[in-house]
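Example 3.2
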Amino acid sequence: MLDTVQLNPPAVLKEMAEATKAIGFTMGSDMQTGSLLRTLAASKPTGTLLELGTGTGLGTAWILDGMGPQTRLISVDRDERAPAIARKFLGSDPRVTFLTMDGAQFLSSMRQQGRNFDFIFADTWPGKFKQLEDALALLAPGGFYIIDDLLFQTSWEEERPRLVHRLISTLEQRQDLRITKLNWSTGLIVATKFS
């Protein structure tokens, strides 16, 4: 079995990848992560999904490709430049709402409102290295919490390996989660809220 062939990417992904390359954005989700996101999104046919860190929308495209007509996605990014690509190619889809907002403020706001999400893809610092507790408090029982970029990369700043180690250790110790660590793609953890 080859896990990088016959992934059947969303039709719009090629154009989005070209637009992403044109602006020099290098932090988009890869094809393997996208394929996993699509599969997990498909398991929530009437769910409310959250993506923290829209980027140019490469991960967003995969998530939408797995979503049913009743599923809703909120994608949050503090920047406007990179997410403009996501809005251009995906903004006409009524299932997705793009928000330009600091992720930490968004998480705090949602927690104050008592919101829950069935799927949280934390692809930025808020919800992963910052405000982890807020993100996990928003996760509905049976919901998925997904993080990537956990395998060492030479481009990492000096503090990043320590942060990754602390994050993994924290998730391993939580009694309310069941986690699977994947030494695959960019390094992922998929967690499910147990209680």
